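CO-FOLDING WORKSHEET

Operator: S.A.
Ligand of interest: flavin-adenine dinucleotide
Run index: 372
Mode: holo prediction, single chain
Checklist:
[x] sequence pasted
[x] SMILES validated
[ ] output reviewed
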Amino acid sequence: MYLYFFIITYNTLMNNVKDKFNKIRILIVGSGIIGKSNAFELSKYGFDIKIIEQDEMQNSSNAALGILMGKIYQKRKGRSWRLRQKSSELWPKWINILQRYNSKLKFEKPLFKLTSDLEKFKKFTTFANNYPDDELEIIESNSYILSHINKTFKGNKLQGIISHQDGRIDPKILLETLNKALKTKNIKTVNAQVIQVEKKFQEWNLKLKSGDILKSDLVILCNSLDSLKLINTEIHNIKLKPVIGQAIEIFHKEENTNFLSLPRILNINGKNLIPINKEKLIIGSTDEYNFKPDEFYINELFEFIQQKPNWLKKENISRRWFGIRSRPEGEPSPLLKTLEEGLILCSGFYKNGILLAPACSAWVSEEIKKHI
Ligand SMILES: Cc1cc2nc3c(=O)[nH]c(=O)nc-3n(C[C@H](O)[C@H](O)[C@H](O)COP(=O)(O)OP(=O)(O)OC[C@H]3O[C@@H](n4cnc5c(N)ncnc54)[C@H](O)[C@@H]3O)c2cc1C
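OUTPUT RECEIVED:
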């Protein structure tokens, strides 16, 4: 009986909210993970939402590995931690909802974080012991759990933590699933480049490269580095620098090596490894403060351990790719700001855009309510 009243009251409330919001137009610039996640979160309220995207195949969301490091993050205070904590809470809920649109979408767990450095391992141990509720399991080098890993990485004394609440969401499947969800919610993507954002008579005018103008009540800039081109940086004093991330796929033909014997999500001495099948493994990523990928940094993806196994060599690269991330200068990542009434910036996602997407979308949705 109580449940029935609760459902009726909740539905009536949500319908009232939707009636209030459905005439409000929101334009989201950029259809990477951040633009799509904002659209998905805001769709709950019934706004009239459109995304404008110039060419999403080249964006950094498509280059990402999709590893979610929430609980494994050692700095347990400040905004960055709060965003990680919130996203770690929200991701399982989002996955539950999004699986209705694509049953292939999964949050794969756990995450193995290993090191060959004894001092680092001691820090991991202290950290794991300090947070007993976070399901951080310490694994010493002689643990049976490491036997397959040690076979693949012979000669490297690896040990570390298993974080049972962290893991990975395949970014390609995630982006596809969000597209399906947004389509069902009637949120359209306009294929165009925004070249100017201007307020005229209480309305935002977004000028497209074609010369067309789109009008809106609210604008959310989710276009990473290029958001700088659309805001007056003299007034807002925002600086973003490009950080290239390169990743590679390794293919081997050795009989005695089977990448599927490794954990599905592995971080060794700071590099992420994702087995794809018996013979293929992804390794990423580099951090290059530049606009163009540099061959020199690819070496980092081979030199993260002292004793290199035979298969870990450049000749075995079967695929390589990169993405350009944006990192704020002089302030922490990401940038979540109201620039003017009705103009919100959600950009500067450096390393953890996939991880932080739900928490940042929740921030934007609360912020938007202040503008209405
Ligand atoms: C190799 C690599 C590995 C990574 N691994 C991980 C990981 O494991 N876990 C994790 O959480 N994060 C990871 N990241 C980081 C993550 O990819 C980014 O933080 C995230 O993708 C940022 O998303 P975004 O939507 O802000 O930017 P983007 O995905 O770059 O999207 C911005 C969009 O805006 C569009 N745009 C720009 N200007 C305009 C304009 N004027 N008009 C219209 N459209 C415009 C662009 O075309 C683009 O599609 C990785 C990144 C790389 C490169």
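REVIEW:
The chain is about 30% helix and 25% strand.
Residues 29-35, 52-56, 59-61, 63-67, 193-194, 222-224, 226, 245, 247, 284-285, 323, 325, 349, 351-355 surround flavin-adenine dinucleotide (CB under 6 Å).
[x] output reviewed
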